[in-house]
Batch of 2 targets.
Target 1
Amino acid sequence: MPRNYRNGRSACDASFCPDAEPLYTWAPKAGVCGIPPGQPNEGASLTAVTYRTPDKEQCSSSYMDQTVSVDVSPRGSVSSNLFTVVKLDVTVGGVAEADEETAGAFVPYEADTNGTLSVRGIAALKPVAIECSPDDLPDSETVTVAAPAESLFEKIGDQYVPAQSEYKACEIGDKQFFLHGHAASGALRDLKVEVTHANCGAKDKAKFTVIKIVSIEPDPSAFIENYYQGSPLDSPANRVYTIPVSPSVIGNGTDPAGFVWPLHVNVRAVVEPAVPENELPESCGLVGGLNIPPNKLLHWVDLRAPKKDVFTFLNCGVDSGLKTTVYVFDARIKPFVDEGDRCIINVGHSWGQYWLNDPSLALIGSPAYLLVSRDVGFFPAPGDWTNKIWGDGVIRLDGAAGSDDHPITGHGNYRAVSFKKFRQALHLVYAKLPPNSPHYGLFDYNCTDFAIDLGLWVDVTTMSPSGTSTPWDFSDWLRVCPGL
């Protein structure tokens, strides 16, 4: 809280004693004080000048309430004068006086307002208190206010208007000021609000940092996907990621290539400027997922079970407006087969099912989500077939329709690791429902070929589709390679 002194007129005017005018306190140095023009012994040097003042650590309680006395030797004359000790104090966001230039205040970023504030901009404002003591200074005494352009606002009634650069000293304490962070800082504590008493030079300043949350992103992973990437819906304000559940829970924990799956993935907040976590205030930090304090910029997503985690960021107690959703999904392709009776040339039937856990089901979209966890089978369409081996085909759903009431002699259970392809496959199958079903060929595209394709469409390779595929071959293959 720097202080300075506002003098009245004196027989030993300070203008003639430059060494007796320090910046913040009245503590004159020993020296020579000249006699002003028009006074007896004009121009003579006075070698012994003694100043007597009250406690220099306190500001005045009212205008001109303090006295300075000057004893001049060898003449023995005594002069006195009234003066005012002026104190200025600026506080941002309630930061204590001892911290206002070391730790400083933190202000949340909100987009440039061009002199006007949105609803979000108003919610992100940080209060600024400016006090000038004593509060009964004359109207002629003013305080100048300096802050970054378009950052400081004054609230008048229910309106926020850009603050002025100068106010009456006796009125500034009654004003309501607020800081708006419309541009991110380039470094910690690189911005300040500074106030100056125009006449005596008393000053105070409070430093602050505007924090911008750039993104909330999971660490890169072999199988994590940005669901909306390339879409107009993809933005830091609404980012969606999908990652498969760790197979250590539903399998052996290792894929065929020997890749060991993690049990969690990190989600990080990127801020500007780069602020060490230990310097961020308690009102800043990620929200969502798993956290081990004191982490403020890093949380975890548990991959051991299907789930949906939503991450946001509280920026100085205000929602940053960014949201990242991570879906941990468990998607399967489940082929089924009735091998039939090879002795009596009963060819049997092959079909399949796309299975998905509930949390990520909403991402599939309508109407294809209606196919999830339903039997899907391919059959020759009813009617007169040419040679009974080629003709129209029909895709059927559910129970008797999808499996044609065939018993299950073989089945598989395989994980799909790309959610995008899983979704595309469901929409592809839906598009092939009658009347758009493909042609059926007993020797080149039959029910088993279709069941194999259900896997290929989600990057799951089962039995080779080359040659003529039969349910009994598929049943043999599934016994050897059942999947999970």
Target 2
Amino acid sequence: MSSIEWTDDGPMGSEKIEFSTDGIRIALVKEDGKLEDLQHVDLAMFGGVLPNVGDRIVTLWPDKPEFHPEDHMRVLARYYVGEFAGDNCWWLLCAYELPTSRDMQLYRLAKKASVETRKDNAARAKHHQENYDSLVKIREKLTPRKTPTTKRRGRRPLAKRPPGTLPPQTD
């Protein structure tokens, strides 16, 4: 049995695994079976959880009032692709799927919740800004800015000297 030599990157001969900036890539399986590179996203797009086979990905668009078939995909397969260049990522193979009536009910419910969330976020941001502004005013009242004075009280006057020269040194 041989002993394993360890380095900073792990066992000797191994390399550090790093994910590409877009750790998840979505490929669309078209009706004719061909694949199309659809989108590159990071894991945060899915709340930190990689979608599993059978999961549905539904997209809500604020400017689209109605549901479109392209907004509903099913995950058909997922592949981990590791490359020597460090471009490691997950590929999700997805296909558009016509939604059921329950899917449409959920879509409408999610759309309504999304609108409410945006209103709440805007109100929260306004509230935080108002609090910040009031704190700035209180701070300005409590610590007024000092106005610069031209007189040097209790100190000897500054000697005039040519620009770029140092004051004389006293020993």
